[in-house]
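Anyone up for a design puzzle?
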């Protein structure tokens, strides 16, 4: 059934199909039987003091502005990562900026942190938290910097988002790894990370409620860079890593898609083709550290999810696999042995 529905929406541009699908589901989810259709027996897991009803999360980028929290709750995600949010609204890169690479079951995106900004997201979170006071779905907020903010002032943007949204998140993710904001990945070097993470940890130390803090990294880092991040985590004790973001490595693509992508231009690639790359990074980090790892990249079925857990991930996130495999993927992973 989902393949038929997917075929219809795949006739639209990728970005238009995304919003059309979710707005349709916004109305369908109000039907009384829909909520029960997506439920399955909880398999609670405790990570960094938080109890997750299941290990299946949604990666950042799918719900940038917190517009679909109610619908994602209906789908029975254990947690969602909303954002990336920046202090000021920004339109992102010119359209088209999201493309399907069907032969590789992949996506190419160069969205560029398009979002309505801190104020708009905060307003939606206030409304959702009032309505769902006992929400069993954990909410992580992915924070970034505005495109116009120079890297030397990047810490200010991360601080604004962190302080402004602290009361409404269950945990936070620092995004310095998107390939679609100029020079952003330069912030993955140790000195810049130390500046940003120390500022956030200092703010957290003055709060009554403690919230886990994670760093989202690229799959294109060298082993030396990974070693620096692992050493940094031991030094200042943020909780862990989200591994990994999209890749800029085009060699993973089938030859036909490689030619297409050359024509499409810049952007990060996600989907099943980055599973092995992402898993290797998860495995490398796990061998050298006991930090929390949220594994993302290439998960499209129970087998790929299990491979990520076997590599050392504590929690899982899906995105591209969710689009290609459908909402049944949540239950497939959430109920696997």
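Challenge accepted. My sequence:
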């Amino acid at each position: 059934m989902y393949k038929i529905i997917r075929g219809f929406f795949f006739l639209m541009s990728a970005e238009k199909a995304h919003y059309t699908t979710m707005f349709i589901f916004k109305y369908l989810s109000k039907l009384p039987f829909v909520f029960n259709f997506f439920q399955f027996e909880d398999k609670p897991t405790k990570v960094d003091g938080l109890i997750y009803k299941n290990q299946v999360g949604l990666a950042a980028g799918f719900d940038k502005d917190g517009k679909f929290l109610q619908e994602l709750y209906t789908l029975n995600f254990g947690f969602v990562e909303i954002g990336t949010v920046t202090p000021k609204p920004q339109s992102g890169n010119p359209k088209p900026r999201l493309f399907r690479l069907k032969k590789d079951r992949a996506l190419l995106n160069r969205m560029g942190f398009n979002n309505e900004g801190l104020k708009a997201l905060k307003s939606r979170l206030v409304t959702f938290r009032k309505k769902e006071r006992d929400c069993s779905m954990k909410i992580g907020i992915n924070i970034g910097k505005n495109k116009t903010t120079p890297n030397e002032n990047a810490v200010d943007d991360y601080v604004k988002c962190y302080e402004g949204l602290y009361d409404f998140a269950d945990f936070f993710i620092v995004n310095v790894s998107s390939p679609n904001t100029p020079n952003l990945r330069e912030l993955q070097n140790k000195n810049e990370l130390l500046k940003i993470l120390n500022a956030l940890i200092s703010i957290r130390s003055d709060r009554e409620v403690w919230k886990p803090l994670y760093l989202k990294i690229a799959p294109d880092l060298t082993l030396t860079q990974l070693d620096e991040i692992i050493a940094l985590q031991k030094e200042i004790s943020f909780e862990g890593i989200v591994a990994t973001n999209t890749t800029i490595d085009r060699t993973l693509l089938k030859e036909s898609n490689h030619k297409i992508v050359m024509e499409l231009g810049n952007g990060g690639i996600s989907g099943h083709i980055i599973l092995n790359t992402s898993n290797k990074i998860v495995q490398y980090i796990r061998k050298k550290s006991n930090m929390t790892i949220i594994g993302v990249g290439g998960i499209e079925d129970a087998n790929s999810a299990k491979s990520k857990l076997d590599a050392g991930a504590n929690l899982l996130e899906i995105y591209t696999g969710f689009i290609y495999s459908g909402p049944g993927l949540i239950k497939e992973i959430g109920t696997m042995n």
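A detail worth pointing out: The chain has a mean pLDDT of 95.
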